[in-house]
Design brief:
Blueprint: H1 3-15, H2 29-33, H3 44-50, E1 67-78, H4 83-94, H5 105-122, E2 126-139, E3 145-161, H6 164-175, E4 189-208, E5 216-235, E6 250-266, E7 272-279, E8 284-287, E9 300-303, E10 306-314, E11 318-325, E12 340-349, E13 353-362, E14 376-384, E15 389-398, E16 401-411
Antiparallel strand pairs: 1-2, 1-16, 2-3, 3-4, 4-5, 5-6, 6-7, 7-10, 8-9, 10-11, 11-12, 12-13, 13-14, 14-15, 15-16
Helix pairs in contact: 1-4, 4-5, 5-6
Length: 412
């Protein structure tokens, strides 16, 4: 039985997570450490990607002239069903099938039972990985603030598609009714589904006197966006590892889009700040390439307008913030839809070090989802900022996920 191809197919799908992934919003390391918040607290370099209006807001003296991120990199990984360990167990069983002619019927039945149990446990199990990277430069100012940025957010999911016909054949061998069913190719497969959003743009921000007690900051970020999807199902009969990164399984679409933002500081010392951002004002969508012969379905990657509102209290040595996504982000493939409500805090030690904490909860409905759950996530981070240089590190953990981010930058 050529089960080695099944294990290799699924294993390659799983290993692809290091190179491919999906479109959750890009978060800098500071933002991730504070629960993914940023719309009301973004520093100039992070405002490019969180809320362009914050470019024109008042900042601390040490960060109101220039900001640079070079770069910010993050990754998340979820494998709550231990797909990789299951694959390794299947691979350990493969050797037993390399020479069935040397087995007694009893041994063949025992090996069939072992493989049956392993494949049955793998059926429908999913692993997920996210990766993101970004660069940003900002020159803040109340009269006119300018920034440039680029970032990419990616996700890949991989799962084993176990054929009922294969399970029936193994069951026949287990029952001793048809040991010849152990001979021949399997129909089971591994399935990889990935999507990515890549963008590059310019941010402009300005402070306006609209007759309120304090000025209002408005911002806009015109940008160029590219969507990518990748879908590959590796069947045993025609599996060829050289085809794994074939362009025939990838679809792409590009276009111009727009982010908008607003911010308003209030209070006796303007210690409160409210912000709202609308990302991807122009809806975009892209269908995946698929093959009905392989049992694949068409998946649609949707980039719809996302509205986020937040409020923050800032003191000399602290920031406390809360924000909520007012729109839901639909899942692509084997995953949860997301709509995050988050809180975060930052404690500053004399401008040389920062401690950050955060948490967020997904309030989107996922009753019919069969992928990995996106639920409550907790975050923490530290920052070092001696003499304008910045090093930020953050981590994330949940029942399903573990992740982290690291960022280098300059602010003065």
């Amino acid at each position: 039985m050529k089960v080695s191809r099944l294990a290799l197919a699924v294993a390659l799908c799983a290993s692809s997570t290091a190179a491919l992934a999906a479109p959750q919003s890009f978060n800098t390391a500071r933002s991730l450490g504070m629960g993914g918040t940023g719309v009301a607290i973004a520093h100039p370099a992070t405002a490019n990607m969180a809320n362009p209006a914050m470019l024109a807001s008042k900042h601390h003296d040490w960060s109101n002239d220039f900001g640079l991120i070079i770069p910010s990199v993050s990754a998340r990984y979820a494998d709550e069903e231990e797909v990789i360990d299951q694959i390794e167990d299947i691979q350990d069983s493969i050797d037993s099938y390399n020479d069935l002619s040397g087995m007694s019927p009893t041994m063949a039945q025992a090996e069939a039972r072992n493989l049956y149990d392993q494949l049955d446990a793998l059926k429908g199990d999913t692993m997920r990985a996210d990766a993101a990277a970004g660069l940003s430069l900002a020159i803040p100012g109340e009269r006119l603030a300018v920034g440039v940025f680029t970032n990419a957010s990616l996700r890949v999911t991989a799962r084993g598609n176990i054929s009922d016909a294969d399970m029936n054949r193994l069951q026949d061998a287990i029952d001793g009714t048809d040991l010849s069913s152990l001979d021949g190719d399997l129909e089971s497969s591994g399935h990889a589904l990935a999507s990515a959003v890549i963008e590059a743009g310019v941010s402009l921000g300005r402070s306006f006197d609209l007759g309120l007690e304090n000025p209002v900051q408005l911002g806009v970020s015109p940008k160029y966006v590219q969507l990518r999807t990748y879908q590959y199902t590796q069947l045993i009969d025609d599996f060829d590892e050289d085809d794994f990164d074939d362009g025939d399984y990838e679809s792409t679409k590009s276009g111009f889009n727009l982010d908008l933002g607003a911010a308003y500081a209030f209070g006796e010392e303007q210690q409160w700040n409210a912000g709202v951002a609308v990302k991807n004002l122009i809806p975009m969508e892209l269908d995946s390439e698929f093959s009905t012969a392989k049992g694949e379905e068409e998946h649609t990657l949707e980039l719809n307008p996302m509205v986020t509102a937040g409020i923050a209290h800032t003191g000399e040595y602290h920031v406390v913030t809360a924000e909520a996504e007012l729109t839901e982000r639909k899942a692509f493939g084997h995953g949860d839809a997301t709509q995050w409500v988050a809180v975060g805090a930052e404690f500053d030690a004399f401008r040389f070090a920062q401690l950050r904490l955060g948490a967020r909860q997904n309030i989107a409905s996922n009753d019919d989802n069969s992928g990995i759950e996106e639920d409550t996530q907790f975050t923490a981070g530290v920052g070092l900022s001696p003499f304008g240089a910045r090093l930020d590190i953050a981590g994330l953990v949940s029942d399903a996920d573990v992740g982290g981010s690291i960022e280098l930058g300059v602010a003065f």
